[in-house]
Structures are given as structure tokens and as C-alpha cells.
From TrEMBL:
Keywords: Cyclin, Kinase, Transferase. InterPro entries: Cyclin-like_dom, Cyclin-like_sf, Cyclin/Ssn8, Cyclin_N. This is RNA polymerase II holoenzyme cyclin-like subunit. SUPFAM superfamilies: Cyclin-like. Residues 284-296 have a biased composition (Low complexity). Residues 65-173, 186-273 form the Cyclin-like domain.
Amino acid sequence: MPPSNIQHLPASHPASRQRPKSPNRVLAEAEAQWIFTEEELANTPSIQDGMSVADERQLRAKGINFIVQCGVMLKLPQLTLSTAAIFFQRYLMRSSLKKPRGGMSKPVHHYSSAATCLFLATKVEESCRKMKEMMLVFCRVAQKNPNLVIDEQSKDFWRWRDWVLQEEDFLLETLCFDLTVESPHRQLYDMLKFHGLEHDKRLRNSAWGFVTDSNNTQLCLLFNSRTIAAASLYAACRYCEVEIHDDSKGRPWWEASHVRLKDMRLALDYIVTQYDPTAQKINGTSVSSSSDGHGSIYAGLGTPIVDEGMGSTRARERAPASASPFPAPESERRTSNTSSIGIKRDRDVTATAADGHAAKDSAEDEQDAKRVRLSDKPDSVAGSEEGEVEE
């Protein structure tokens, strides 16, 4: 019998075990696989098959709108709609809406793909609805008749049912069964809670609205969820005129969240352009002004190119020391993909004793903060009167 080539280690040397990756690192690596460049977004499978960039992005917007309308009628939570929108955006990066697939006579309709993404998102986010209810809503929204009476034995009902079940398998294969989505809504809630702003209703609703509106764009394919949440929080702070204190180390709030200023500027510029009435097109589709004809109320936010210091949302006073819930991408953090509002963390904020010059410093800091707010306004607002409130 030939000798074995297996090398046996002595008992004093236990077998080495590779340390498993932290959940936060796994989630970050999975999300990084779906981050693309502007050049890649302009070269999707549909565009390669002959569809124009404007038409392709218009179909994306229509698909997202279909998801939102169906979600409203089904009374689905916003996190489910956000997950479905991300699935739809990722799906179109690997599948074409121009070319028929697998022996089909016609290309896949964007409504059918959007309905399948919503059907899958209800399972992922554990907000399931009955098959009958979903198929009825799909028929009504597709035919633009919310009061349409559909029989369960009708051809339309069974056509939608068979198509969604068949398309679900192809959707899973296209997404590589990567169903882990870190919603920017959860990241935003964690940021608000860490800075003690979760009870500011106006700021919270504004930031939540910016994140929700970002689903209508391809922002989730350009930046990670944390960057989108930080850009939305900054836009909300500018709109509500709220300042956030630096952390105990003197770093601005976006650095405490481990978000690069360059990425946040690009994401913010992408968000603000969506509301800018002076821009004729965004993502290939035209942008109209507000209903009163006086332009968008978000136009006063300005762009990050003008706002060099990003200081209008930053209070120079240091906040009390506290543990940051936003570790670096390499550090470990436990995450929960099933929670509706993210992880609940107990943060013990330690109160710092005031020194002998507290009264004098507070008055000087208040004057400095006023100068910062005035100096950091965009060019469109800096020329107005000093007492005018930025809209």
C-alpha cells in the first residue's frame, strides 16, 4: 500500500480556520457588485439592441411609476417599493427590453418586468399579498382603470398570473439570486437617530421624500445606499435650514457616517437636477416646473459645485462624544434585513462639563454659525436680501 501524502499536524497545532466575513462586509461587497459608471449606464443591453438612451430611461421611469401605483393600491410599505425599484433597475442592466428573449415573438414589456420585481420584493421584505389581489391590481394599473372589474377566470387575469410566475424564475437568474438589498431609507433613519433628529418631523419627511424620489432615477446604480442617504439628508437640511453638529473629533457629520464628500456631491447634484426647472432633461426625460408655474420649490437647494464648503448644514460646535453607528466599510456591524426601520441601537450620550469660558464661547460660536450660513448660500440666493429665507 503506497504511503499517504496527507500531512498530519501534531495535536499542539490545531487546524487553522478562516475567519468568516462580517455581515456588514458581505453586504457592502454584494452592493458594490451592482455599482456602475456613467459609461456603463449608457451602454445597457437595451441600448446595445438599438434603443435610444432617452427611450430606455423613459421606460425605466414608467416601470418605477407602475411599481409605485401598484404599491399604493396594495398598501405596501415604502421599503418594499424601494426594494422593487432597485430590483427593476438592476434587472435592466442585464436584460433587454428591445430584443425578444428565448423564442418569444415580442420583447418583454416593462410593465411585466416591473410587476415581477414587485412580486419578488413582497417576498424578500416579508410583506406578502395574496396572488389574487396582486394580479387584480396589475390588471387595473396596466389598463389605467382603478375600478376595473376583473374575473378570476378571465384571460387577462391568467395571462398576468402565468407571466409573473414564469418571469420570476428568469428574474432570479438575472439577479444571480442576490436578493440582499440595503435600503437607503434604513441608512437615513440611522443617521437621523444618531444625530438626534428623528423627532424633527419636517426634516425627517423632507429627507425621506428625497430618498423616495431617488428611486425614480438610476442613482442606486451609481452610489451605495449610505451615500444616497447622506445626500438626501444634506438636501433636507438645506431645505429646512437645519445644522448638524460635528462629532467629538471635530469631523463633519458626513465623515462621521464614513461618506466621501466627493461621492456625496455627485449624488446630491444628481438629486437636485431632478427638481431643477432650468434643466430641460434629466435621464432623457423632460422636467416640468411646479403646478403654479413658478418653478420647483427645490431649485433653491443649489448644486454642490457652488457650495464648496458644504457648511450650511454643518454646525462647527462639537457634539458630545457618542459611539457612531456607521463604521468604516471594513469594520464589523450586525445588520438586519427584515427590520422595518433598521437596527435599534442604544446610544449612551455622555454629557460634557462646561468649562469656565462656556458663556463667552457660545456667543462667538453663534455669530460664526450665522456667518457660515450666509456665506454658504448658492449664488442664486446670495444676491438676494439678507433677511430673505431660502426656499
